[in-house]
Amino acid sequence: MNQYNPPRRPPSLLERAGEVYDYIPAVRTGDRQEKEATAMPADSPGGQVTPVTPRPVQPYDGPRVIVDRDKLREAGFIVPDGPVTGIAEEFRIIKRQLLLAAKGSQKSRPVPRGERILICSAHPDEGKTFCALNLALSIAAEKDNEVLLVDADFAKPSILSSLGLEGSKGLMDALADPELPVENCIIHTDIPGLAILPAGDQTNADTEYLASARTEQVLNRLTQNNPHRIVIFDSPPALSASPASVLATHVGQVVMVVKADETTESALRDALGLMGGCEHIQLLLNGTKFSPTGRRFGSYYGYGE
Ligand SMILES: Nc1ncnc2c1ncn2[C@@H]1O[C@H](COP(=O)(O)OP(=O)(O)O)[C@@H](O)[C@H]1O
Ligand SMILES: [Mg+2]
Q1: CB 126 less than 6 A from any atom of ligand 1
Q2: Residue 151 CB–ligand 1 contact under 6 Å
Q3: Which residues of the chain have pLDDT under 50?
Q4: Over the stretch 142-158, which tens digit does the pLDDT of each residue have?
Q5: Domain residues for 169?
Q6: Does some domain include residue 49?
Q7: Domain harbouring 84, CATH code
Q8: Suppose 207 and one of 82, 221, 242, 259 were both cysteines; which one would form an S-S bond, judging by CB atoms 3.0 to 4.6 Å apart?
Q9: Quick count: other Cβ atoms within 10 Å of Cβ 80?
Q10: Considering the domain boundaries, does residue 232 fall inside one?
Q11: Which H or E run contains 221?
Q12: Number of domains in the chain
């Protein structure tokens, strides 16, 4: 009798990129875990999972700050209601995978805490903020979703300046002061569906605050009354700041930005090793000029041993 060989999944972007950048050994480690991570849960006969319908919430009707569209355009970001650019198309593809994991489907359960997404990379200047803000703008454009973009690069916050907004209290202040409700730090923008949580005051103890038990309570408040909200964290670089690995323990999904022709294999491995607190990691190849299939986003689930 012939042996049954299950159909192989198509190679991920990372595997294809491996032919160019030699990332293949790192992928093999993840391969085995991906199978475990994507296996159908034992308690779901036939793979049918009924998604829970979130409760409707009152839309926010307070004051909104105006985002500088020219600044967005000049820096190459997606402009709300602007022309559909190549970048806009790419982030549509990227957000689909992330939203699918966050919300689940007929065939798959939502990833636990999948509505919290950390955008990380090994080093500075690899495109974390660029990707976090574009992803937030892309998700905000969806009628059914709201997005809260959290500036979690506490040492070098740049979300507010990218949007042309003034500094104000933020996540670190809410973590440091139990009397300050984190909701009071949220800035609602005139872009429908987009709100910002600034980084807040700089402190040398950011890692300690993030690692405290209160952090999870504070983060829960960001979504507890708003089940449609996706929370995107713009992370500090994994290899130059310790908060990144602590943030990974608070999110359900990590997007690891890999800068084409710059991020080395060893830096990527080290950065992924620090993301052990999250089981659902995807790679995003940024700034590539070469894409044989036209796709630039790769799956890389389950890394974390
Ligand atoms: N794909 C891209 N296309 C155009 N500009 C980019 C792209 N990725 C990053 N940049 C630009 O490169 C610079 C560094 O990116 P940034 O997102 O600030 O890096 P990081 O947050 O990782 O430090 C910024 O000026 C950003 O606008
Ligand atoms: Mg940044």
Answers
A1: yes
A2: no
A3: 1-4, 6-7, 12-47, 299-305
A4: 988 999 999 999 999 99
A5: 17-36+62-105+115-301
A6: no
A7: 3.40.50.300
A8: 242
A9: 18
A10: yes
A11: helix 214-223
A12: 1
